[in-house]
Every structure is written in structure tokens, then in C-alpha cells.
Design a protein that fits this description.
Helix content is 32%, strand content 38%. It has one domain: Alpha-Beta Plaits (2-Layer Sandwich), CATH 3.30.70. The protein contains two helices and four strands; from the N terminus they run E-H-E-E-H-E.
Length: 69
């Protein structure tokens, strides 16, 4: 299943890597890719609760606004 997370506060490649690594560390996530220009992260996963994804982004230090998809 693919979901897109809208995230505020990312501005550089360090931010991109930090969020991608945080999302990839969530059990069940097979891939995560951040688009800095759009302020989004595309996540591919199997049966992962939205709150787990949002919590990973928050723990990385960023502000997730919502999940689409």
C-alpha cells in the first residue's frame, strides 16, 4: 500500500535522509522517499498504522500534517 505524508519543516538533504531513515525503520515499511520540493514523503508499506508513520516523522523532528492515500 502506498501513502503520501505531507510534512512541514524539511529544507535540506539532511532533512530528507533523516525522515526517510525514520520511516524505513518502522516495521512493515518497505520503502520511503522524500520530495523536498513538494514537502512530501511517499511510503510503501504493509498494514502499518498511520499513527506509527506520523510518530516516526515527529520523532525525527518534523511536523507531519496529514496522510493521503
Amino acid at each position: 500500500m502506498k501513502k503520501t505524508i505531507i510534512i512541514e519543516g524539511m529544507s535540506c538533504m539532511h532533512c530528507k535522509m533523516r525522515v526517510e531513515n525514520a520511516l524505513k525503520s518502522v516495521p512493515g515499511v518497505s520503502n520511503a522517499s522524500v520530495n523536498l520540493n513538494k514537502g512530501t514523503a511517499d511510503v510503501e508499506s504493509r498494514d502499518v498504522a498511520d499513527e506509527s508513520l506520523l510518530a516516526a516523522v515527529r520523532k525525527a523532528g518534523y511536523d507531519p500534517k496529514r496522510i493521503e492515500g
